[in-house]
Design a protein that fits this description.
This protein is of the alpha+beta class. It has helices spanning 8-13, 33-42, 73-82, 92-95, 97-114, 166-173, 229-248, 262-274, 312-316; strands at residues 4-5, 19-23, 48-53, 63-67, 85-89, 119-128, 133-137, 142-149, 152-156, 192-196, 200-203, 210-214, 219-227, 287-290, 300-301. Helix 2 (33-42) packs across helix 3 (73-82), helix 6 crosses helix 7 and helix 7 packs across helix 8 (262-274). The longest helix has 20 residues, at 229-248. Bound molecules: fe (ii) ion. Fe (ii) ion (FE2) binds next to loops. Residues 99-243 form the JmjC domain. This is JmjC domain-containing protein. It comes from Asticcacaulis biprosthecium C19.
């Protein structure tokens, strides 16, 4: 029995095109309300990330990281329902045996159908509030976005120089910055727009920029990031290009630089990583708000932090 509904065409173009699949996980007992609360309770609290965001999905600077000390699973779920937050449980496949087994099953199926072997798989569970959003960004690995509950509108953009610069993507590969990118509403004329529903999975070519806006309901999704040998090669080329630009003042281009140089770049990236990796301009997440079990959904901003406020114009948009 398979989890994903494949055709010959989708198996052939997996990881290379924007593809919507149907899957059978939306009704899995692993993601029922009670199961999610129990999972939140046993998940390592230091790995759980909680964010809130502003009201303009075009702004990537309105994304804040928070503390969730003392919040039990039920408190977090109540907070998601009542508030404006985005919970990210990273690498649940490493933290939970049942989800780990599911993730192994997914990648065994991917290998069987596509011949592609996944490396460094990271199954992230996203539990997010009605109308929450994630601004325009790109991810270095390949991604499968599985929708379990709720509907989210996904804008997916082409992987080309009109949508981000070489220096920007290298900065993400080097973890010099987070994944966010400057957004221009004019980009939308070339976007694929899809309302992702329970029982659907969306995947796209490596590094395709995207942004996501939830419908007016709680959303539960799996964001599964992974590498293939080819994707890891590409990620290391981006990493090396970043080093060549920052350390040697060169101006490499991932689209235009000669392929013949790539093996040397892989060596450069591996040596740099073996010596601890690129160290400049890191931007670690700094919390700026807290949650309180007694006040579900409320974002308690730190002193001096300006709260996000919904304006009528933004709501209308
Ligand atoms: Fe993403």
């Amino acid at each position: 029995m398979t989890l994903i509904h494949w055709t010959d065409d989708t198996a052939k173009t997996f990881g290379k095109s924007n593809l919507v699949f149907h899957h059978d996980l939306a009704d899995s007992h692993l993601f029922s309300e009670d199961a999610l609360i129990a999972l939140l309770d046993r998940y390592p609290p230091e790995s759980l990330e909680v964010f809130t965001m502003g009201f303009d999905p075009g702004r990537s600077d309105e994304w804040r990281f928070g503390r969730h000390k003392g919040m039990r699973g039920a408190d977090l779920m109540a907070g998601v329902k009542a508030g404006r937050m985005w919970l990210n449980l990273r690498k649940v496949n490493h933290a939970d045996a049942e989800v780990g087994a599911l993730c192994d099953q997914i990648f065994a199926e991917v290998r069987e159908k596509t011949g592609q072997t996944a490396l460094k798989s990271d199954l992230g569970l996203l539990i997010s509030s009605p109308n929450a959003h994630v601004a325009y960004h790109l991810d270095i690995p390949l991604v499968m976005l599985w929708q379990i509950r709720g509907i989210k509108r996904v804008h997916l953009y082409p992987v080309d120089a009109d949508f981000f610069t070489d220096a920007q993507i290298e900065g993400i590969a080097l973890r010099e910055s987070d994944e966010s990118l400057p957004y221009d509403p004019a980009f939308d004329s070339r976007a694929l727009i899809h309302d992702l529903k329970p029982g659907e999975m969306l995947t796209w070519p490596q590094n395709a920029p995207h942004r996501i806006v939830n419908g007016d309901m709680v959303n539960v999704s799996l964001s599964i990031e992974f590498m293939t040998p080819q994707a890891l090669w590409h990620a290391n080329v981006l990493y090396a290009n970043g080093l060549l630009r920052r350390w040697f003042g060169l101006n490499p281009s991932v689209a235009k630089s000669p392929k013949i140089l790539e093996p040397f770049k892989i060596v450069l990236a591996r040596i740099a990583k073996a010596f601890g990796g690129f160290k400049g301009n890191k931007s670690p997440l700094v919390p700026s708000f807290s949650l309180d079990p007694a006040r579900p959904g409320e974002i308690i901003y730190d002193d001096g932090v300006k709260p996000f406020v919904a304006t009528e114009t933004k709501r209308a948009a």
